[in-house]
Amino acid sequence: MPAPATGSAPTPVNPRSRVLVASLMGTTIEFYDFYIYATAAVLVFPQLFFPSSDPTTALLSSFAVFGAAMVARPVGAVVFGHLGDRLGRKRTLVVSLLTMGIATFLIGVLPTYAQAGWPATALLVLMRLAQGFALGGEWSGAALVATENAPSGKRALYGTFPQLGAPFGFIIGNGLFLVMGALLPSAAGADPSQPSDAFVSWGWRIPFLFSAVMVAIGLWVRSRLVESAVFARTRQAGGVRRLPLVTVVRGHGKQLVLGTFIMLATYVLFYLMTTFSLSYGRTAKDAAVPGLGYDYTTFVLMMIFGVLFFAAFTLVSGPLADRYGRRTTLIWVTAAIMVFGLVWVPLIGLGTLGVVLWLVLGFTLMGMTFGPMGALLPELFPTSVRYTGSGIAYNVSSILGAAVAPFIAVALWETGDGSPWLVGVYLSAMAVLTLIALLLGKETKDVSLDDREAASADDATRAPAGSPAS
Fold first, then answer.
1. What's the mean per-residue pLDDT of the chain?
2. What is the second-level CATH architecture of the domain 16-447+457-461?
């Protein structure tokens, strides 16, 4: 291959296997950390950190802290997006993963409310905010590593690998909780839907402490990456922005809004099928607000079976989005989500087989809608602000969707006297908003990520020559 005309050395290229492993490994760890908090928020945190005479109030308080992390995510998207668009993808990804790992490990060593009072709850909130802050910078960086290094015509397929971190993290996290439950069984005669005393006392800490091992592996994998050629060329051309946030808000506001609402139905479905369904599935049928009455182990095994479809159809969605387009694929999937929200109560009414079908269909749709996002959101923005723009759209949507979804779902569940039909209506309504955003947007399949900044771009926000980022 001839040398570039400038006489500079060719930009190092990441092997494709390294790209896929690094993007998958990092998001798997990040989602694992997030899931184990979500599971603990249902199983033990209400009684350990939010004591209340009303179990529903304690559960809602635990969910409120779960949602607080979603509020921190856009802040993380801005901070890590700034670093990623100024300094590069690799270093920023390492820092975000390390932040998440430290916060998760520290949750595992926190005192409980009974041991330390309100400072224990405050520390849990602080660590949860740190988790959200880190995840705000993780996803967009992983998606960029995958898509900016993807071969022609396979960008959506490559973009599904960071998305696979969600189902893989779920399986590992909940699988570990199942192992702990098996090793620490409840005493004879105890309520099988409740965790054992040993698990409540100390067993719940193990999954949080185990995160340190996974983070060490993830850091090693990511340390072997080199910067993407797309970003390297933008930096060499002086296209790095001094204030990426200002540039993306001024020049790409429409893309931010559309990207946020395109993700909305995905987020609502995601957290209804994971956090809310775990509460609903485990709540006794004779409770004040009745649920399905399954014991924890049985229902989680049913969920893990559903999540296998989540993983499979995440991969399936990539080739479909590469062939037919991201927008076309997502329009059909979003329409299916609207229908799913209206029919899941009749499905649940069919008994265990219906519940399994509900989980399989929900997680299948989750894979089909989540998979193309790894390519679509980065494709909305030019290289110089891609980390910031895709991260803000992805994480602001987490506030509108995921932060409030479990809380709203529990309230609607109570309003429906134990029937989740209003929860399904809520999902369908959010899918309508996503469908509108998709219809207003444009297809991005043929957009080139290796762009050259337009002359009309905001030159005042370019990094000055000679700066560390230029």
1. 83
2. Up-down Bundle (1.20)
